[in-house]
Amino acid sequence: MGQNTCEHLCSEHCGPAKKLELNPRSPYPELLLSNAIPSDLQAQEIKKTIRGVDEDIGALNAEIKRLQRSMDALIAQRTDLERFAHDHRGVVSVVRCLPRDILVEIFGHCLRDCGPWSRPGPSDVKPLLLVSRRWHSTASTSPGLWRYIDGTKPKMQSPTKYVSMQLERSADAPLSITFRTSTDGAAQTLPLLLDASPRWEEAHLSLTPADVRDLFASTHAFPALKKLNIAISRDGMADIHPSEAAPGPAFESIPALEELTLWMDSRFVDLAQRVALPRFPWSRLRRCELRRVHIEDLPRILPLLSADTRVYPMDIAPRFTFSVKSRIRALEFGHCTREFVADLLNSLSTPSLKKLSIIPDRHLSSHFETLDEDLTSVIILFLRRSACALTSLHLDVTIPGCDLITILGSLEVRGLLHLTISERALSAELVDALITHGLVPHLQSLDMDPWLCRLTEATVVAMLESRHPVLHTLRIRQHKMNSFLSQATVNELREKGLEVLEYGFS
Fold first, then answer.
1. Which H or E element spans position 231?
2. What is the pTM of this model?
3. What residue ranges in 320-459 does DSSP mark as E strands?
4. Which of 257, 246, 317 is closest to 286 using CA atoms?
5. Is residue 250 packed enough to be buried (19+ CB in 10 Å), middle (13-18) or exposed (0-12)?
6. Domains in the chain: boundaries
7. In angstroms, how far is CA 44 from the centroid of its own chain?
8. Is the pLDDT of residue 23 over 70?
9. Beta strands at 200-207 and 175-180: parallel, antiparallel or unpaired
10. pLDDT digits (tens, 9 = 90+) for 263-311
């Protein structure tokens, strides 16, 4: 077989046309190391040698090109085989064999909740549509993937088109709506969303008072709405006169509402005089957050609640006093000063209270350090006045160890099951009391930050062992990723049945 017709594409069958001199010898090597001028005869012989080497270089270049063509052909063949194998592996892959319902469940996990003001939209589902025809068909016909309708996405083109598409593809699935009236195209998309109001299950709304008036005065109903996060600004408040307020039937019947987060830039009572605010089913709520709440609104709202309640006052609240009895089961303070905590506790009576959390904003910590008011007596009087039975207590305030022992020794705290103490309240004195005085005898879990109170590992271990097996869970904070308890101690405690969890921040 000739060299040009070889089918093997292999140098073993297709060698070079001539034998190459790969190690040529110089006819006059001594001339290379001197400045001597060669004779005519020597010059002719050297030129002849150079021509031979040039021919060999040309032959090698030709051989390289031939072998490169062979390599290219082999690589092409390998690519074809790899593509063939890849295509056929897809036929027998586990993903291809997944039932549709499991595939839809996986898709749902891909569209994780991004936060209270950001929900998956069409652009988030799009990558799933581009994988294969089956994935496109599955994703586009799965109502649950299109239930998050977010009208706040930046630079959304044709918002009406996208909202209409999502409403169509979501079929009868319950909807999670995120909507701001300040978003481009809001005036066009709101009627579409209201037409689907019976399917609203969760709503995150940012509205002006005029928007509230128009929305709640509509004839649409929201019978399936379970979670509502509504922020009402004060924009245009002065332009709405009390005489314009009209009955608002839209929210008169929302029997399914369980969670309410209310952001108010204006007093609730002032807004109610100007717009038809919804008649929220306060007593049926399981959870309520009052963010940026005005002091004047607390006496009107708290008596109506029986839910777990978080209170975030409007900026730095002024001193106040009133007397209110509330059926709330949990009370959490946030972004507030010690004065606000003291004033509200002095004004409240909560016989159904099970959980009390005082967690101030760290940026306001200076207020907690400089005020002289005795928060310990305020808390004790509040608990006695309420005659409640706490099961969970979270304190992130500066309280002397002896004062905290007094709080934990009160009758209303005797049945405590869960205790969280920050570094500002924890002390060696308190740990000793937990060992020797039998405080909170039913305590099951303890969350603590021991780094600033000079506790030793031996003291913490002694406290845990003295209260085991009733106390079975310890959450202990790390400091700069350093563990307070050695790994050997953690392992020993776990062998005894104690659950030790470490957490922290770098």
1. strand 227-232
2. 0.71
3. 324-325, 330-334, 348-349, 355-359, 392-395, 418-421, 445-448
4. 257
5. buried
6. 6-16+46-92, 389-506
7. 84
8. yes
9. parallel
10. 877 666 556 554 445 567 788 889 998 887 777 788 888 888 887 888 8
